[in-house]
Amino acid sequence: MNTTPISASDVPLIVQGLPTLYGSKGSWVTALPLPHTARFRGATARAVSPGYAKADRIAETGEVTVYLENDDGSDGAPDGAMIEAARWLLENDAAFFRAVLDAMLADLPSLRAIENATVLADDAFRLPERWGEATLLPLVRLNNINLYPVLGAPYIGLDFSCAWEDEHGYGLMLAGTEVVETGGADVGALGWIAARHAEKRQSQ
For the chain, what is the mean pLDDT? Predict the structure, then answer.
């Protein structure tokens, strides 16, 4: 982890089994070593977007920048559910990467339908007719992962920049390897999506 971009006012927090967390007032950041998931921001990935440059520098090769934020306004250490989600990610990196990749590949038909219903400029990017891992990775970049203080599963949101949607990006919310929702980048940043899914699970 490169700590240079981290604010000097952020205090370190040692949590067993995880890299050092840095933060204050209930908001924390770290870089998890996730060699599989980090392929979404590797050498073949889309270039980093200017708005994410600082956060991107926190993660070194084979790592991903991860945010943990208490949503109840508490100023203390991260909620235990987020700590467990981070540990789950470390243990299940390969399976998690596969679940995310498969979800993105499965979204191609709906993305193409949206594209086909839109009037594009002559020089606008157009999605390929077919894609696989080698086609997809250069079109996206994983900006960061968000963990959520929601019980029932490791709730994990992903924020991507992508070639086909410069403004809104692409995002996913997962409960472990189960895909909860995909859409714009805000999908990975909305804790209520995780909470709603957890409530639905509990009621079944």
Answer: 91
